[in-house]
Amino acid sequence: MRLSDQSEDEEKLLRLAEGCDPASLVLSPAEGFLLSRIDGRTSQGVLRRIGALGPAEIDRCVARWLEAGVLEWTRAELREEARVVRAASAPAHTAGPLLPALDPSLELDASVQEELLAFAQRLRRPYHEILGVPRDADARRLKQAYFALSKRLHPDRYFRRRIGAFAPLIDACFKKLLEAYELLSDPATRAALQAAPSPAADAGPALTSSLAVRRRLRARVGALGAAKRASEERRRKAKGFFESGMASFAKERWLEAAASVRLAIAFDPENEAYRERFSEVQRRAHDERARALVRQAEGALELRDFAQAVSLFEEAVDYRPADPELSMRAAKITWQALRDMRRAKELAAHAVELAPDNGGYRRLLGLVYRDAGLTANAKRELEMALRLDPQDVEAKAALRAL
Question: What are the structural domains of the chain?
Answer without folding.
Answer: 3-91 (no CATH), 110-185 (1.10.287.110), 244-285 (no CATH), 287-401 (1.25.40.10)
